[in-house]
Amino acid sequence: MSSKADDSGTSHRNGAREPHPVVQDRGRKAVERLLNAAERILESRGLDAATVPVIAAGAGMSVGNVYKRFPDKDSLLSAVYERFFAEALAANEFALDPGKWKDIPTTEVLSTLVTGMIEGYRSRRALVRALLLYAQTHGDAEFRAHAEAMRLETLGLFERLLRDRRADIGHPHPERAIRFVVMLLAHALENAVMSESGGIAGGDFLSHVPETSIELFRVANGYLRIRSVERPRTLSQARR
Q1: Domain residue ranges of the chain, discontinuous segments joined by +
Q2: Which fold has domain 81-224?
Q3: What is the pLDDT of residues 5-57, one digit of tens each?
Q4: What kind of fold does domain 20-70 have according to CATH?
């Protein structure tokens, strides 16, 4: 069975057109360069600065080559959004695997979750701000709904971990209380991200992680009414 490639890099096998493996790999790498460049610009210069010419220059590509991979700026930025939150979801699925937390006291679980949420927003604050602004101001209601669903899917992992501890929660409606607390924390942190000053009385909410962790933990713990129940630790227990 014979095949040959034409000048476009497409191989022909028995009359069928098939993408050439080298060209496919080159195309994937070009897309990654564009996504990485767009992400850097969003993080360093904000949403308004992320134009196609600026992204192309950041990727070391021509504007024409950008449009070979993406039909417009919106499709490129939506791909950045999708990749960022898909990677965040995968990382949280690994970190929040209930099996890794089964011997940890519930108060410690909550404290660690609160600190983790704060760090997640703080570490990529400028990028998260740009991506949230992109989603919130998007003209397509379907995309806005999809973006919100991705956000809620990640928050659902935090809820799942706490739902497994509902017996330790003194609130009369534990599942409703868990949903409320997780959404309250997320809203507070997103508000801080979107605010140039950090969102708390002009102070920089996200730059004081220890103090912020303590205060938000107190709010969440007091609302959930977590009972102090020590769980037996085993040698195999670890949060990896």
Answers
A1: 20-70, 81-224
A2: Tetracycline Repressor; domain 2 (1.10.357)
A3: 444 444 444 444 444 444 477 888 999 999 999 999 999 999 999 999 999 99
A4: Arc Repressor Mutant, subunit A (1.10.10)
pTM value > 0.90: no
Q: What pLDDT, in 10s, does the model give residues 210-231?
A: 888 999 999 999 999 998 755 4
3-state secondary structure the chain: CCEEECCCCEEEECCEEEECHHHHHHHHHHHHHHHHHHHHHHHHHCCCCCCHHHHHHHHCCCHHHHHHHCCCHHHHHHHHHHHHHHHHHHHHHHHCCHHHCCCCCHHHHHHHHHHHHHHHHHHCHHHHHHHHHHHHCCCCHHHHHHHHHHHHHHHHHHHHHHHCCHHHECCCCHHHHHHHHHHHHHHHHHHHHHCCCCCECCECHHHCHHHHHHHHHHHHHHHHCECCCCCCCCCCCCCC
Q: How far is the C-alpha of 212 from the C-alpha of 126, rounded, in Å?
A: 19
